[in-house]
Write a structure and sequence with these properties.
The chain starts with a helix and ends with a helix. Strand 1 and strand 2 (165-173) form a beta hairpin. Helix 3 (54-91) packs antiparallel against helix 6. It is 60% helix and 18% strand. It has 366 residues and is α+β, with helices and mostly antiparallel strands. The chain has two domains: 2-148 and 277-363, no CATH class; 155-246, no CATH class. The protein has a six-stranded antiparallel sheet with strand order 1-2-3-4-5-6, with no helix packed on it. The protein has helices at residues 2-8, 11-49, 54-91, 95-100, 105-108, 110-146, 256-269, 274-286, 290-302, 311-337, 342-363, and strands at 155-160, 165-173, 178-188, 191-204, 209-221, 224-235. The longest helix has 39 residues, at 11-49.
Length: 366
């Protein structure tokens, strides 16, 4: 590795890499401090109302909050950092000697590509392996102390557990881990073989079983039927209380293994969350690619020396940052609500801005 970097990266490359990564880390730190200050001011009443200690808030909330926003902001801060220090290099006439010395513009992009690769790899590792676990801290804290139980609850839930078993729950109380007006049906091909109903179904988190309250079970065997009823019965079902929750931050807190498991279960259950699960999975791998595309746009747009210094390129860069965020949100809405395939939705922002990057690269000074 050291031989490769020594062969392909010269002194001027390391100069640009140090400028790139130094500006990126510094800018990311500034934005993170600002976000934390605004978040504290917004949630301070919740912290005080629940009598939470400073150390508890830091370890149970900000240990999850900080990695989430570091990863979320990294491509956009990367974009602003590239524009800032590249425009400054152009303003100080540092780029002209590089290109005039015989280096092509593509050769000039090499240290940028190297730095973008570092950011891409770090972001990918965070997205796949670290962020889901830290998001569990953040989500648990928000749902417990900040949201005040106002998360949406699923109602009228129909779910297929396997090829033969279907369940129905009219409503579910997350706090009590209790479902109301429960029904379970088992089929043999198209024939109903067993139907169980219960006024309540309660999850025992210690035994990991469901308790059916005031239940009745009807067994069907052709023309013969048998009815069994009782006040309580424990049973094991391939479903957890979290399957009845509708928190907006539920899926981004799932580790990759759990996410894949839920995708396979959803293929059978068909509860209507498949798009959410697939979008979450795809965006974890695709979102880091934006570091390359936004770096390309930033270099192509800010490498030309303009009157007025770095103000104009930086202003355009901030505008494009907001445009990228809006495009990401629009594509997500079209995927979740408009029927757009998730794999296409996660690529739309990168495709649009990738085309813009290639156009600006063509117009960049050579």
């Amino acid at each position: 590795m050291r031989r490769l970097t020594k062969r392909y990266l010269k002194i001027i490359d390391w100069y640009i890499i140090n400028k790139y990564l130094g500006t990126f880390v510094f800018t990311l730190g500034i934005f993170l401090v600002i976000i934390i200050v605004f978040d504290i001011s917004e949630k301070l009443d919740d912290f005080l109302k629940n009598h939470l200690s400073f150390w508890f808030v830091v370890t149970h909330y900000y240990f999850g909050f900080i990695p989430f926003y570091l990863n979320f902001l990294s491509p956009l801060i990367n974009f602003i950092a590239v524009i800032f220090f590249t425009a400054k290099m152009a303003d100080l006439t540092e780029i002209v000697p590089i290109l005039s010395g015989g280096a092509s513009f593509n050769r000039f992009l090499r240290p940028y590509a190297f730095s973008a690769t570092i950011i891409f790899l770090v972001s990918l590792i965070f997205n796949v392996y670290i962020i889901p676990h830290t998001n569990q801290l953040k989500s648990t804290f928000e749902n417990t102390y900040v949201s005040n139980g106002n998360n949406q609850q699923q109602s009228e839930v129909h779910m297929q557990l396997d090829k033969k078993t279907y369940i129905y729950v009219q409503s579910f109380d997350e706090a009590q881990k209790t479902g109301y007006q429960f029904a379970l049906e088992k089929f043999d091909h198209d024939s109903l073989r067993q139907k169980t109903t219960a006024t309540r179904i309660v999850y025992d988190s210690l035994k990991h079983v469901w308790s059916l309250m005031d239940y009745s079970t009807r067994y069907v065997n052709g023309l013969k039927e048998k009815l069994v009823s009782g006040t309580k019965k424990d049973t094991i079902l391939d479903v957890k209380p979290s399957d009845f929750q509708a928190h907006n931050n539920l899926y981004d807190a799932m580790p990759m293994k759990e996410l894949n498991t839920n995708i396979e279960k959803e293929k059978i259950r068909g509860t209507g969350i498949m798009v959410d699960l697939l979008y979450e999975k795809y965006q974890r791998f695709v979102y880091p690619l934006s570091s390359y595309i936004l770096t390309l746009i930033g270099v192509a747009m800010s490498s030309r020396k303009v009157r007025g210094g770095i103000g104009l390129p930086l202003g355009i860069g901030i505008f494009l940052c907001f445009a990228y965020i809006v495009t990401v949100q629009f594509s997500k809405v079209f995927a979740l609500k408009g029927g757009l395939p998730p794999i296409i939705a996660v690529f739309i922002p990168n495709i649009i801005f990738g085309i813009l990057g290639l156009y600006l690269l063509k117009k960049a000074p050579k």
